[in-house]
């Protein structure tokens, strides 16, 4: 075992929202008591979550920068989310970079991508493809988005603009995703949430392990070890270790990064419990490997460009 990591941390996956804006339909009041998503009830996160709330929740950790990932802003109001993010106080390093939302199969996709890419804070795009036969667990209405020619044309446009793509899917979609990565070798893909091991049965976890190992053969895919408690509500360090070690074993620290997914992760764990778990599990890895997992992989992939002096173990807290 090695000493626990105490250096600077980049959180490359979290969300912010102001519900008074009325732009997050998935967070609107539930109909007839329907409040469940695949990761549990969202009642506890149906509240404003801004920079101050994020800083409060992470105050014990050495966060030097973060990446904001699109938070389900209504497609009826394109570009608004990044403009809202631009208006926030960035002196803390929170939301230093954005992964923006652009529906890749829209007729307006080329124009929207160009406008998003013109914002220097926007380094990537996410268009969730997570389809489940149970509508309550599905994020999209169709299962074959990654094979749709129009959607793939949109991805090609994003790649030409130098944007990465955050890939959120379920394990049974990993074969299709591997074909996608092969067809777009110049695209930097970032697999979200450990590859979403939602089915915790023996067969479900075997499918996840196999799919993740196959996906890792694509050099243009990295993985975010984000919100590993989402599908493990009764988690322990050992249950997290099983998932995290497989992620790192497949991709290596140079293509893996720890991330929170706040405030969604707060359904099952607060930030300190989650990151203390990361630190404990990461003692199995060398100091350089830990630095990659907590800092340098995210800095490189999301083009944060933080100076090498940030490696100091006594970097100041945000």
UniProtKB/TrEMBL annotation:
Residue span(s) of domain Amidohydrolase-related: 10-304
A Pfam entry, by short name: Amidohydro_2
Signal sequence, renumbered to the chain: none
Source organism, top-level taxon: Bacteria
InterPro entries, per database record: Amidohydro-rel, Metal_Hydrolase, Metallo-dep_Lactonases
SUPFAM superfamilies: Metallo-dependent hydrolases (SSF51556)
Family recorded in the similarity comment: Belongs to the metallo-dependent hydrolases superfamily.
UniProt protein name: Amidohydrolase-related domain-containing protein
Organism the protein comes from: Nitratireductor thuwali
């Amino acid at each position: 075992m090695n000493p626990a990591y105490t250096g600077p941390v980049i959180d490359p996956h979290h969300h912010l929202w102001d519900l008074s804006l009325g732009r997050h339909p998935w967070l609107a009041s539930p109909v007839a008591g329907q409040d469940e998503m695949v990761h549990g009830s969202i009642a506890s996160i149906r509240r404003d979550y801004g920079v101050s709330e994020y800083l409060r929740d992470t105050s014990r950790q050495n966060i030097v920068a973060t990446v904001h990932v699109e938070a389900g802003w209504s497609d009826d109001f394109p570009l608004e989310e990044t403009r809202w993010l631009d208006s926030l106080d960035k002196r803390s390093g929170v939301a230093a970079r954005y992964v923006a939302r652009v529906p890749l199969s829209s007729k307006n996709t080329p124009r929207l991508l160009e406008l998003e890419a013109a914002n220097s804070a926007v380094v990537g795009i996410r268009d969730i493809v997570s389809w489940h036969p149970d509508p309550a667990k599905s994020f999209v209405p169709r299962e074959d988005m990654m094979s749709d020619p129009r959607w793939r044309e949109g991805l090609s446009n994003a790649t030409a603009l130098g944007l990465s793509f955050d890939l959120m899917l379920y394990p049974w979609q990993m074969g299709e995703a591997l074909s996608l990565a092969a067809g777009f070798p110049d695209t930097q893909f970032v697999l979200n949430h450990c590859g979403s091991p939602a089915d915790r049965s023996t067969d479900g976890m075997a499918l996840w392990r196999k799919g993740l190992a196959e996906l890792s053969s694509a050099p243009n895919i990295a993985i975010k070890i984000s919100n590993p408690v989402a599908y493990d509500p009764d988690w322990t360090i050992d249950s997290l270790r099983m998932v995290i070690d497989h992620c790192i074993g497949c991709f290596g620290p140079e293509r893996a990064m720890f991330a929170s997914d706040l405030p969604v992760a707060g359904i099952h764990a607060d930030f300190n419990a989650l990151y203390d778990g990361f630190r404990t599990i990461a003692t199995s890895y060398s100091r350089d490997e830990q630095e990659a997992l907590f800092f340098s992989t995210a800095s490189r992939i999301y083009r944060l460009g933080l100076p090498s002096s940030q490696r100091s173990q006594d970097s100041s807290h945000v």
